[in-house]
Amino acid sequence: MLKKILKFTAYFLLAFTLYAFWMSPRLGGLLTFGKEQIDPQVYALQFDQTCHNQYNLTYPNQASEYEMLKNTYRLDSLVNDCKSDFERVLKIQSWVQSRWAHDSDNRPEKNDALYILQEAEKGRRFRCVEYSIVAEQCLKSLGFRVRGLGLMARDISEVQSGAGHVANEVYLNDLQKWVFIDPQFDVMTTKNGVPMNAVELQNCIAHNEAFEIINPNHTTTTAEYKTWIGPYLYYFNITINQQKISIWDRILGRKKQLILYPNGAEKPEYFQKLMRINTAHFTHCIKDFYPNVE
To answer: Has this prediction a pTM greater than 0.90?
Structure first.
């Protein structure tokens, strides 16, 4: 009987170890290996225009959920003089970017804009993720439809760190389109005066087409930002209807994300060898990723 128990235990530990390495080759960061830098090249990408799948992306008005945030920081007063949605978004983004200096390692205990802003007032610094969270919730408090946007480099599965970036996209009602914003840098981009989404920005960079970077807080130059952001614009990731992803979702592979990836590209297997990307649907279709908002 004892031998059977020991044998079962040995098999269980072996199976658990293999599964752990399958889910996270670096065991959650305990191991350090992989490429040290991302591929800096910006590739010309192609996507489908005809949809084959529908993911029922919905973006309801959530202003009431963030009333306290709006009132605490008097966010409506920041945009009183703005004449367009574009100006309102830019004003809020600039304000968010000015709240703290970037820190690539520090993580808050809560993914809540009020908490993050209060901690920032105490001198704490946060990542691109927190700029995105705070900008998203501040803009939602004013009635905007906003989503967090994950960007991943072409070699996201091979690099051990620094292969992803988090920004936002906002739906502008007066233009009826999704627009890319990067709260970490206080950047919005336009081509011929029209704000661009992330895929449009990638296309401009890849084909060396002229476009404008609007950066009121003067955190970067056009050349610097173009060089920096270009390699991250390869895989584009959003959550489906803002669902939260738990450890059990990752273990069971429940699909709560949507990744737009270019024609001919491989589906990424891992995020920086830290976690298997098994909670996502994949699409080549632009219209899947950029639904109209009513």
So the answer is: yes
